[in-house]
Amino acid sequence: MALHFVVNDYGLREDHKEADARVGRWLITAAVFLGWVVGLATEIPEATLTILTAFLARGVILNVLKEELPEERQSRFWAFALGAGAYATLLLTL
Fold first, then answer.
1. What pLDDT does 75 receive?
2. Distance (Å, rounded) from C-alpha 87 to C-alpha 80?
């Protein structure tokens, strides 16, 4: 996840140079701390937590598809398939 955040930060800086430097970075930082405080102060039912986790995972996957995968002609399907299979195997063994 840390590597994902580094790439995402780079993408935001490239797309929104001025706004990211002035407001965006601080807004995202404040949102992280606000989420932490809300998490400490509230109890979320397990079903709701599952839905929120799925929503978060969807957002991460969309960001990865947009920012981290190479362009169409520069991609290698078998490298992607091998990585996805290895990660799925790792998750299933844990």
1. 67
2. 11
**Token code pair at residue 51:** 């839905």
Look up residue 32 and give its amino acid.
Answer: V
Q: For the chain, where are the alpha helices, taking DSSP H only?
A: 2-15, 17-19, 25-41, 46-63, 77-93
pLDDT (mean) for 86-94: 92
Average pLDDT over residues 32-57: 92
Q: What angle do CA 61, 25, 49 make, to 5 degrees?
A: 45
pLDDT at 94 over 80: yes
What's the DSSP call for residue 74? G
Contacts (Cβ under 8 Å, ≥6 apart) of 20: 12, 13
